[in-house]
Amino acid sequence: MRKLSIRSRILLLFAGAMMIAMALTFLLVYIVSASVMKKTLSDYLMSAVDTNVDKLVFLTAEEAQAEKARDTNDLFVDYKDGVLQIDDDFLEILNDVESALYTGEGDLLYGDNSLSREMAGEAFTVSRLYEKEIRGDRYVVYDRKFVGKKLNGLWIRGIVPLTRQKEQLAQITKSVLAFLPVMLLMVVFGSVLAAMGILGPVRRMEQTAAAIVDGEDLNRRIETGKNKDELYSLAVSFNAMFDRLQQSFTRERQFTSDASHELRTPLAVITAQTEYVTAKDRSSDEYREAFAVVGRQAKRMQRLVSDMLDLSRIAQGQKRYPVAEVDLSAIVTTVCEDMKRIAYNNIAITADVAENMQIDGNPDLLERLLVNLLDNAYKYGCADGHTHVVLAETDETVRLQVQDDGIGILDQAKEKIFDRFYREEESRSGGGYGLGLSLVAEIVHFHGGEIHVESQKGTGSCFTVCFPKKDK
After folding, report:
1. CB-based burial of residue 145 (10 Å sphere; 0-12 exposed, 13-18 middle, 19+ buried)?
2. Which positions ≥6 away from 425 have C-beta within 8 Å?
């Protein structure tokens, strides 16, 4: 079965949510309406019964004789030692409310209602309002006790059927069902608009990404819009990702171009030498010199490939270079002692190393970092010069400094010396490929540190590396 598209899923989810909300709303309206109707019906029943209470008067025989002569429409009923005068509209049926007059024992004195027979003989207790089901129908019943001279012991029982409430609720349900198709169309239309509104920006993101892939135009970016909502954040994140991809693509393309350029020269020299010695018979000295040239160029290529491989491995992170607690003081001391033995151009190396400087790192990479910095100081230092190494701690970092008194760096070149294959000038290259300081920067970033350089042309350079201190 083919999976539904995101648009279809949003449409179904939104429509489903709207239908559930409508159903819950209708249920709430139905429950509230039923409660309000029952309350209104009960209030009307109690009001009608309370009104009837005022229409019953107890009279003596003489008072009753006088009232009979004056009002011929009222009804007079003998009760105990007197007469009950009942108004002519007493207990009349109004809006389905029926009432009857009873004694406290449940005997019917006057009137009739739908439940008079079913509830005959049911004694009265206290004035109350309650529901009763008889013959499958439900009724609201109100028992009202008379209070007054000679009227104690009399009760009025009023009833009203709940059929009208059911009819009104049925009418509400019919009205809702009649309007249901219109509501469904509105829900579907609203769901379509919602899906279009939600997926519109996503669709534009997809089109931009497809254009980048199809046209290889890494300069295109997604329009973020003005509303800083979740889609705005997503577009910003995609644009940042495209920026990084473009930068990575540009760096890798430049890296490939530079590597090809750097390898071209030694390969050309090796090819020329092999063609030279194979063109005709040569003397032993000529063969020896040609092989020496080939060997030197092969070593240069080997160093280049090794540096490129190290850069690639560092990018793989801790899978290739595991990190553990290391004694940076011991590493710096050992490297400085080893590099002193080279004494290139009679350049002296001194070291001021604080003891027990512990950081989290890879010992091989940290050793390579310092070797490259000292090798850089040898290459660009002045004969009989001096290079000083300092390892100390600050409040937040462990700081490594390598300072030389060599030829220095131009101001405009300081931001570029850590780029791959960058060389300020051929005279300054010292036979390198411009990967030494690039490796240094990658190793520093691998350890979460920072590197800075201070230099002036002709006065020397100072490279400062700051590593995060290990938590104690």
Report:
1. middle
2. none
CB atoms within 10 A of CB 98: 22
- 3-state SS assignment for residue 177: helix
For residue 121, pLDDT beyond 60: yes
User: Among 251, 267, 260, which Cα is nearest to 312's?
Assistant: 251
Whole-number Å distance between alpha carbons of 6 and 12: 10
Tell me the residue type at 27.
L
Return the sign of the alpha-carbon dihedral for residues 102, 113, 75, 42: positive
Confidence check: pLDDT of 218 > 70: no
At 195, which amino acid appears? A
Tokens at residue 338, please?
């080893």
Give the tens place of pLDDT for each residue, 347-388. 999 999 999 999 999 998 999 899 889 988 988 888 889 999
Cα(465)–Cα(439) distance, integer angstroms: 13
CA triplet 356, 449, 258: central angle to 5 degrees?
A: 125
CA 163, 168, 173, 177 torsion-angle sign: positive
pLDDT-based confidence at 427, cuts 50/70/90? Answer: very low
Spatial contact of 111 and 100, defined as CB atoms under 8 Å apart: yes
Per-residue pLDDT of 152-175, as tens digits, reads 888 888 888 887 777 777 777 787
Residue with the two structure tokens 């390969």:
267
CA-CA distance, 165 to 370, in Å (whole number)? 92
Would you list the DSSP string of 9-57?
A: HHHHHHHHHHHHHHHHHHHHHHHHHHHHHHHHHHHHHHHHHHHHHTTEE
Domains with residue ranges and CATH for the chain: 6-55+90-169 (3.30.450), 231-311 (1.10.287.130), 318-468 (3.30.565.10)
